[in-house]
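A reminder from the course coordinator: this example appears on the midterm review sheet, so study it carefully.

Given structure:
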Protein backbone atom coordinates (compact mmCIF):
# COMPACT_ATOMS: atom_id res chain seq x y z
CA UNK A 1 0.00 0.00 0.00
CA UNK A 2 1.34 3.47 -0.86
CA UNK A 3 0.44 6.77 0.76
CA UNK A 4 -0.33 8.32 -2.60
CA UNK A 5 -2.76 5.65 -3.75
CA UNK A 6 -3.69 3.45 -0.80
CA UNK A 7 -4.52 0.21 -2.57
CA UNK A 8 -4.09 -2.68 -0.14
CA UNK A 9 -2.53 -5.98 -1.03
CA UNK A 10 -4.43 -7.54 -3.95
CA UNK A 11 -4.35 -10.88 -2.10
CA UNK A 12 -6.77 -9.43 0.48
CA UNK A 13 -10.04 -11.25 -0.37
CA UNK A 14 -12.23 -8.47 1.07
CA UNK A 15 -10.65 -5.79 -1.06
CA UNK A 16 -11.81 -4.55 -4.42
CA UNK A 17 -10.41 -1.17 -5.43
CA UNK A 18 -12.66 1.42 -7.04
CA UNK A 19 -11.80 2.61 -10.53
CA UNK A 20 -12.17 6.35 -11.05
CA UNK A 21 -11.18 8.59 -13.95
CA UNK A 22 -9.50 11.97 -14.02
CA UNK A 23 -9.28 13.53 -17.48
CA UNK A 24 -9.99 10.10 -19.05
CA UNK A 25 -7.10 8.41 -17.23
CA UNK A 26 -8.12 5.56 -14.91
CA UNK A 27 -6.89 5.28 -11.32
CA UNK A 28 -7.58 2.75 -8.57
CA UNK A 29 -8.62 3.92 -5.11
CA UNK A 30 -9.41 1.61 -2.21
CA UNK A 31 -10.97 3.95 0.34
CA UNK A 32 -14.65 4.89 0.47
CA UNK A 33 -13.89 8.63 0.45
CA UNK A 34 -11.37 10.85 -1.28
CA UNK A 35 -10.52 14.50 -0.71
CA UNK A 36 -9.90 17.08 -3.39
CA UNK A 37 -6.26 17.23 -2.28
CA UNK A 38 -5.95 13.45 -2.71
CA UNK A 39 -7.54 13.67 -6.17
CA UNK A 40 -5.08 16.41 -7.07
CA UNK A 41 -2.13 14.20 -6.09
CA UNK A 42 -3.22 11.00 -7.93
CA UNK A 43 -1.79 11.86 -11.37
CA UNK A 44 1.94 12.14 -11.87
CA UNK A 45 2.76 14.99 -12.00
CA UNK A 46 0.01 16.20 -9.67
CA UNK A 47 -2.76 18.47 -10.96
CA UNK A 48 -1.45 22.06 -10.66
CA UNK A 49 -3.22 24.73 -8.57
CA UNK A 50 -4.03 26.61 -11.80
CA UNK A 51 -6.59 23.92 -12.64
CA UNK A 52 -9.89 23.18 -10.90
CA UNK A 53 -11.25 19.66 -10.46
CA UNK A 54 -14.88 18.86 -11.28
CA UNK A 55 -16.96 15.76 -10.56
CA UNK A 56 -19.15 14.76 -13.50
CA UNK A 57 -22.76 14.57 -12.29
CA UNK A 58 -24.96 13.15 -15.08
CA UNK A 59 -28.16 15.14 -15.56
CA UNK A 60 -26.98 17.93 -13.23
CA UNK A 61 -24.31 20.64 -13.24
CA UNK A 62 -20.81 19.27 -12.63
CA UNK A 63 -19.58 19.78 -9.06
CA UNK A 64 -16.37 21.72 -8.40
CA UNK A 65 -14.20 19.85 -5.89
CA UNK A 66 -12.03 21.98 -3.61
CA UNK A 67 -8.97 20.53 -1.86
CA UNK A 68 -10.80 20.22 1.48
CA UNK A 69 -13.99 18.72 -0.03
CA UNK A 70 -14.68 15.01 0.39
CA UNK A 71 -16.31 12.80 -2.23
CA UNK A 72 -17.86 9.39 -1.57
CA UNK A 73 -16.11 7.04 -3.97
CA UNK A 74 -18.07 4.73 -6.24
CA UNK A 75 -16.74 2.63 -9.06
CA UNK A 76 -16.73 4.60 -12.30
CA UNK A 77 -16.72 8.15 -10.90
CA UNK A 78 -15.43 10.62 -13.47
CA UNK A 79 -13.57 13.86 -12.84
CA UNK A 80 -12.14 16.44 -15.20
CA UNK A 81 -9.90 19.43 -14.79
CA UNK A 82 -10.20 22.91 -16.28
CA UNK A 83 -8.22 26.13 -15.99
CA UNK A 84 -9.37 28.12 -12.96
CA UNK A 85 -8.87 31.38 -14.87
CA UNK A 86 -10.08 31.76 -18.41
CA UNK A 87 -8.71 34.64 -20.47
CA UNK A 88 -10.98 34.97 -23.47
CA UNK A 89 -8.56 37.34 -25.22
CA UNK A 90 -9.72 39.88 -27.75
CA UNK A 91 -12.43 39.30 -30.28
CA UNK A 92 -11.46 42.05 -32.76
CA UNK A 93 -9.19 41.61 -35.76
CA UNK A 94 -6.85 44.42 -34.69
CA UNK A 95 -6.54 43.14 -31.10
CA UNK A 96 -9.18 45.53 -29.75
CA UNK A 97 -12.52 44.34 -28.41
CA UNK A 98 -15.21 44.16 -31.07
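Designed residues:
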Amino acid sequence: MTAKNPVPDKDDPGHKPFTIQIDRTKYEWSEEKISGAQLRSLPEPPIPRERDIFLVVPGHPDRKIKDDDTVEVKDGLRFFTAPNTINPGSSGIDGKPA
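The helical segments are 36-41. The longest strand covers residues 78-83.
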